[in-house]
Amino acid sequence: MATLALSLHFGGGMELLFDNRRDHEITITLPAPADVRLLIDWIATNLLQERKELFLEGPSLRPGILVLINDTDWELEGEEDYQLKDGDDIVFISTLHGG
């Protein structure tokens, strides 16, 4: 098991799904190796307040959500396979907006 202190941030309207809070400082214990896939599941189970379909599509993150890991696009870090490290800063931003 891995215990990690992480900073999570939600923007672009996503904060409305998370008790209208943009920033969450969390300490979690996940099975090792702890990757973003496990974090997304933990977020959906423990932080997501409503409208799960606006965050997830099946077990994965919904398309249209930009993810930054330590200020780097998660596509450059391995997306859901990125191995979390203590102190990581992870940002989720919705790029889809109604009109």
Describe the protein in words.
With 99 residues, the chain is of the alpha+beta class. It has a single domain (2-94), classed as Beta-grasp domain (Ubiquitin-like (UB roll)), CATH 3.10.20.30. It is 15% helix and 35% strand. The chain contains two helices and seven strands. It has helices at 36-46, 74-77; strands spanning 2-11, 23-30, 56-57, 60-61, 65-69, 72-73, 89-94. The strands form two sheets. The chain has a five-stranded mixed β-sheet with strand order 2-1-7-5-6. Strands 3-4 form a two-stranded antiparallel ribbon. The chain is globular and about 35 Å long.
What is the CATH-assigned architecture? Roll
Give the CATH class: Alpha Beta
Spatial gap, N to C terminus: 44 Å
Could you say what the CATH topology is called?
Answer: Ubiquitin-like (UB roll)
Main location: cytoplasm
Pathway: tRNA modification; 5-methoxycarbonylmethyl-2-thiouridine-tRNA biosynthesis
Protein name: Ubiquitin-related modifier 1
Subcellular location: Cytoplasm
What can be said about this structure in brief?
By secondary structure, this protein is an alpha+beta fold.
Which descriptors apply to this entry?
single chain, 99 residues, alpha+beta, Ubiquitin-like (UB roll), 5-stranded mixed beta sheet, two-stranded antiparallel sheet, 2 helices, 7 strands, globular
Which secondary structure elements does this structure contain, and how are they paired or packed?
Blueprint: E1 2-11, E2 23-30, H1 36-46, E3 56-57, E4 60-61, E5 65-69, E6 72-73, H2 74-77, E7 89-94
Parallel strand pairs: 1-7
Antiparallel strand pairs: 1-2, 3-4, 5-6, 5-7
Pathway: tRNA modification; 5-methoxycarbonylmethyl-2-thiouridine-tRNA biosynthesis
Cross-link (Glycyl lysine isopeptide (Gly-Lys) (interchain with K-? in acceptor proteins)): 99
Family: Belongs to the URM1 family.
